[in-house]
Design goal:
The protein is mainly α. The protein has a domain of 112 residues. The chain contains eight helices and five strands; from the N terminus they run H-E-E-H-H-H-H-H-H-H-E-E-E. The strands form two sheets. The protein has a three-stranded antiparallel β-sheet with strand order 2-1-3. Strands 4-5 form a two-stranded antiparallel ribbon.
């Protein structure tokens, strides 16, 4: 009896194809309003931002930066302090990051907007009055409305507790009822 070699070869090809689809690079790290960044992109962003930053931060801070970006873009839209991708790339390049990934660019944009909100010279500029008003109008509910899904390896997105908080597995939780 002769076995067909085509069937095992086909099964192997299908298995390899499916394994390729679930590789490390496609593992979702965070999704913000439908824009997904893989675990690999999030790790790359953390490494690249730490290369350019004075104070290193973990992936949880990068997730928080990404989550804030939609609100910050709304606050700064159309203002003299609105950022272009080219401006952010220049800031990163000055910090030693010449080939930033998409998550790095997005998180760095968020950080640049946050720095601008903290810059008295920018915020006291009369041309920035509308930006100041929009920034002051942002509420915790606005932040909660941003659709953020985080890979459990980084924690849970919890606006009420300051952003990304460690996820405690069910088997570790202490039951006070019993």
């Amino acid at each position: 009896m002769k076995r067909s070699r085509a069937l095992p070869a086909l099964a192997l090809t299908a298995a390899l194809t499916l394994a390729g689809c679930s590789g490390v690079g496609s593992d979702p790290g965070v999704s913000v309003n439908g824009q997904e960044f893989s675990v690999a992109e999030l790790q790359e962003a953390t490494a690249q931002l730490n290369e350019a930053a004075e104070q290193p931060a973990g992936p949880q801070q990068v997730v928080a930066d990404l989550a804030l970006l939609p609100l910050l873009e709304e606050v700064f839209a159309g203002s003299p302090a609105d950022l272009s991708e080219n401006q952010v790339r220049k800031v990163l390049s000055a910090g030693g990051v010449d080939d930033p990934g998409p998550a790095t660019l997005a998180a760095a944009t968020s950080r640049q907007y946050q720095l601008r909100l903290g810059d008295p010279a920018i915020m006291q500029d009369p041309e920035m009055a509308e930006v100041v008003q929009r920034a002051q109008a942002v509420t915790q509910e606005d932040l909660a409305a941003v659709d953020v899904e985080v890979n459990p390896r980084y924690g849970d997105w919890d606006v009420d507790n300051g952003g990304v908080v460690p996820e405690v597995p069910e088997w570790i939780r202490f039951d006070t009822a019993g």
